[in-house]
């Protein structure tokens, strides 16, 4: 049903952005007779292409694998338990989903399958972030989906909206775009209430705002407006605004390519930088420390530098890659807590590469997670 009121009278200018996550749900990709349709995907791809041509970076979080698999083997769900059947359909349809997106772009499309566990585990979180950042650096277009063939609970919840918010925080996006099949957030259900009013902006996600959200009205989709608000809350906690818009309206997508929104903008509670620094400052630290010399301490404090192995003199404790660790300077005046941050290397590895040049890391360890012991984006001064 597409009887929602038009949003053309509610156009607003969006702030400039450099990197974004675009979440696309099954309702925009599923064909009426089963499988995937390019009908709405084409307009979304044109928005992405315009953004890329403007020098911006986009990561797509796309649902639709189960819908695609259902068209390949329409009787698969009859063969076994519901969950196993849906997981099998997701496995069948994932290649079709990536193929759909690849047909719209000359640049390579990269498949990235994640689970929430991948992003809760700090080491796997760092690996996922490094992979996505490298794909963007290489000019590829990452298309992320849940690894539905193994993520049982996540598949039941169908929360690619929330996955998109986590990915947005993972890559330090400036904005999270959520394409849906209605014009945005209304004060009532626009499908059943013709007097429903579109909310062009939400300054704060209060219980009253959540009360406006309903469930999914689409047979192919598993999320609804409430999951989109939950995603906006997660993104907002990382300082990222969320934009809801109708991915079925070509004119909306054309305007969006020029930073003009017909939809709903949900503002973050604080700036992206402030949210990141707040988390780094208050997240629990692991026992132990990375010990540095005076030169490294001065570079961290005065130049906003990353911590390089050449300025490290040792490590205490038994921390692992991805742990939050304090950086400590010891001199004749005692011990000084300089900073805290996420270590790219374990305590054992830090001891082995201490006082060495970044270019020597791989020859010493046999592998390389980058030239920084702690990257400046993962560090906050104390």
Automatic annotation (TrEMBL):
Pathway: Amino-acid biosynthesis; L-proline biosynthesis; L-glutamate 5-semialdehyde from L-glutamate: step 1/2. This is Glutamate 5-kinase. It is an enzyme of class 2 (transferase). One of its GO terms (molecular function) is ATP binding. HAMAP family: ProB. Belongs to the glutamate 5-kinase family. Keywords: Amino-acid biosynthesis, ATP-binding, Cytoplasm, Kinase, Nucleotide-binding, Proline biosynthesis, Transferase. One of its GO terms (cellular component) is cytosol. Substrate binds at residues 63, 148, 160. The keyword Transferase applies. It holds the Pfam family AA_kinase. Residues 288-374 form the PUA domain. The gene is proB. It catalyses: L-glutamate + ATP = L-glutamyl 5-phosphate + ADP. One of its GO terms (biological process) is L-proline biosynthetic process. It is found in: Cytoplasm.
């Amino acid at each position: 049903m597409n009887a929602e009121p038009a949003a053309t009278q509610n156009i607003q200018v969006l702030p400039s952005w450099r990197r974004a996550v675009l979440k696309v749900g099954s309702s925009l990709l599923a064909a009426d007779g089963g499988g995937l349709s390019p009908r709405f995907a084409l307009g979304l791809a044109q928005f992405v292409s315009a953004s890329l041509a403007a020098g911006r970076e986009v990561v797509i979080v796309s649902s639709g694998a189960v819908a695609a698999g259902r068209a390949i083997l329409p009787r698969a769900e009859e063969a076994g338990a519901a969950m196993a059947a849906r997981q099998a359909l997701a496995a069948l349809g994932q290649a079709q989903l990536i193929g759909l997106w690849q047909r719209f772009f000359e640049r390579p499309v990269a498949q990235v399958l994640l689970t929430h566990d991948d992003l809760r585990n700090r080491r796997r979180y760092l690996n996922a972030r490094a992979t996505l950042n490298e794909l963007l650096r290489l000019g590829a277009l990452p298309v992320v989906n849940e690894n539905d063939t193994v993520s049982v609970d996540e598949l039941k919840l169908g929360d690619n909206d929330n996955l998109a918010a986590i990915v947005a925080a993972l890559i330090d996006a400036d904005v999270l775009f959520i394409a849906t099949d209605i014009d945005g957030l209304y004060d009532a259900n626009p499908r059943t209430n013709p007097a429903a009013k579109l909310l062009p902006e939400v300054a704060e996600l209060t219980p009253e705002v959540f009360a406006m959200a309903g469930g999914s009205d689409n047979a192919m989709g598993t999320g609804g407006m409430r999951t989109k608000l939950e995603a906006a809350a997660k993104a907002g906690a990382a300082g990222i605004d969320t934009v809801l818009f109708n991915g079925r309206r070509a004119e909306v997508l054309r305007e969006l390519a020029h930073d003009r929104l017909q939809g709903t903008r949900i503002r973050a509670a604080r700036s992206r930088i402030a949210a990141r620094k707040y988390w780094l400052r208050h997240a629990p630290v692991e026992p132990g420390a990375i010990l540095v010399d005076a030169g490294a301490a001065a570079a961290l404090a005065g130049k906003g530098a990353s911590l390089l192995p050449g300025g490290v003199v040792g490590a205490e404790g038994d921390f692992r890659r991805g742990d939050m660790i304090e950086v400590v300077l010891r001199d004749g005046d005692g011990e000084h807590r300089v900073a805290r941050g996420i270590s790219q290397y374990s305590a054992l590895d830090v001891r082995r590469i201490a006082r060495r040049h970044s270019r020597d890391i791989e020859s010493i360890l046999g592998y390389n997670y980058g030239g920084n012991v702690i990257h400046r984006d993962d560090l906050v001064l104390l």
